[in-house]
Structures are given as C-alpha cells and as structure tokens.
Amino acid sequence: MASSAFASSWSLSLLKLQDQASPATAKSSTRLRFREGGLGRICCDHSCFEAKSVGYRPPGTQFNLLKDVSFSLPEKSFGLIFGQSGSGKTTLLQLLAGLNKPTSGSICIQRYGDSGEHKGPPEHLSPEKVGIVFQFPERYFIADNVLDEITFGWPRQKVSIQLKEQLAFKLQRAFNWVGLDRISLDKDPHSLSGGYKRRLALAIQLVEVPDLLILDEPLAGLDWKARADVVKLLKHLKREVTILVVSHDLRELASLVDRSWRMEMGGTLREDSLPPL
Ligand SMILES: Nc1ncnc2c1ncn2[C@@H]1O[C@H](COP(=O)(O)OP(=O)(O)OP(=O)(O)O)[C@@H](O)[C@H]1O
C-alpha cells in the first residue's frame, strides 16, 4: 500500500493539473482522427474491435464452452451481450481480457480508412489495452483512501517529474470522465456511495485509456438511484471509449446500446436486438 508521503506527492501533482485537465482538453486524446478532404469534406479513420471464430475448451475437458464466436464493435460504441445464466458470457469476457487463451480464433483491432478499406493488418488486442470491471468491483478495494486505491501498482521509486505529471494528468482525466473530480482523495473508498464506488472502479481502468472497456453486470447490487447514475455515466463515457457489457439489465441499458448479441446455451453468439421490454 502506498505511504502517505507518496500519496501527498501525487496529490500535489494532481492539484497542479486540476485546472489543465478540463473535459475539453481530455477529449483531445480521442483516437478518432479527423482531417479535411479536398472540398472541405470531413474524412475520418476509425477502428473496430473484432473477434473472429473464437472457440474455447477448458484445459483437461472434452467439451467446447464457446463455439465459433464472431462479432465486431466499432470504436466508441456500446455493445451488449445478453443470454441465459451459464451460456458462457463471462467465459467470453475472460478471453477478451486475456485472462484465458482462446483454443481457436483471434481477437484483434482492425483500422479502417474513410472509404472503409483496411488500413494495415489487424493488430492483436493485447491484455494491456483492455480494461475490465468485474461484478461488484468494490469488494476488491484494498486501500484506505481513494488516491491509494487508484495509484496502487504505480511506480514508487525514482519517478521522474515528467512521468509523475503525465500519470497525474491521466488520473485527473479519468476522474473527470467518471465525475469523481470533486471528491476528496483522502476519503475511504468503502465509505463512498454505491454509485461512487462504481465510478472509482471505472476510473482505475481509465487511467490508461483502453482500446476496449469490458463491464460485467455494471448495475448489479445497486439501488435504483445509483443504477440511474451509472447509466448516465456510461452514456457520457461511450464518447471516449469502446464499451462492451454483459448484463441482464436490458431495460435500463437499452438506450445506450449500439449493437447487441444473444449468447445461446452451448456457447454460440448471434447478433440480436434486445427482447421486447
Ligand atoms: N474451466 C471450466 N471448466 C469447466 N466448466 C466451466 C469452466 N469455466 C466455466 N465453466 C462452465 O461454463 C458454463 C458457462 O459459464 P459462464 O460463467 O461463462 O456463464 P454466464 O453466461 O456468464 O453465466 P451467468 O450469467 O450466470 O454469469 C457454466 O456452466 C460454467 O460452470
């Protein structure tokens, strides 16, 4: 756990950056690149997360939990996977996050030009570029203040002032994105409200902006007010990152969804609209 001296040195860097990292400046980090065409036409390159023919058989077993799963999600959009308990949704998320290796298939990011042509070969989606927030993330909080919780695992020795400022900037940006910029960094994470605990769990995953942010049941265990709060936050967040959610809370998330898929028992995935609510 970080020492208080360490925490206060990060606090100082944060205070310094507080005014610089407004949401407007944070948005400049967007990876969608725009340029002017010859006739003033705005063109844009974009990327897409793509899973192709992914299969998974747990080591030492004879059965496939996932079969030929293929789907794609354009950057800065919101995808939702739903389906019966035990159909394999969490198993799929674990593969996407690099926690297990698929038995077959590929998981990558493909870049496209403005006419829809491939720009280079697909890039393997490395686990460092995926953020994942598990169900009930607050159960895994280990620090006794917000700053230590979010900086856990950050370098502690021989940190240059440039690196410190860079990290502090990223942290401030993450706090702005999730609306935590007004809470005290000294606060005990366990004393936050349900919705703010989820915000903190999200901020931890957003310090390094992931190519894909995965959320497993983001509304589970929250009261109605906190659920509405998290939905509002996700609506805002999808302007910044690509979000893939597994959830049974279809009604509340419906307004955010750009693409949805049903996981069938037996481990197959097919694109499907949300069932009537
Ligand atoms: N390593 C493993 N070996 C054998 N079976 C496994 C393994 N991992 C998961 N399973 C089984 O695979 C099935 C799919 O589990 P998974 O947790 O992915 O389902 P789910 O759709 O996420 O369910 P829920 O909605 O309840 O979270 C379950 O029957 C589970 O018991």
Descriptive overview:
This protein has helices at 4-17, 23-27, 89-96, 146-151, 161-178, 194-206, 224-237, 250-253, and strands at residues 34-36, 42-44, 46-56, 66-74, 78-83, 104-112, 123-124, 130-133, 212-216, 243-246, 259-264, 268-271. By secondary structure, it is an alpha/beta fold. The chain has a six-stranded mixed sheet with strand order 8-9-10-5-11-12, sandwiched between helices. Strand 9 (212-216), helix 7 (224-237) and strand 10 (243-246) form a beta-alpha-beta unit. Helix 1 (4-17) packs across helix 5 (161-178) and helix 6 (194-206) runs parallel beside helix 7 (224-237). The model is unreliable at 1-7 and 17-41 (pLDDT under 50). Adenosine-5'-triphosphate (ATP) binds at residues 58, 61, 65, 85-91. One of its GO terms (cellular component) is membrane. It holds the Pfam family ABC_tran. GO terms for molecular function: ATP binding; ATP hydrolysis activity; ATPase-coupled transmembrane transporter activity. It comes from Rhodamnia argentea.
Task: Give helix % range.
Answer: 25-40%
Radius of gyration: 20 Å
The major pleated sheet works out as: 6 strands, mixed
Tell me the total number of β-strands: 12
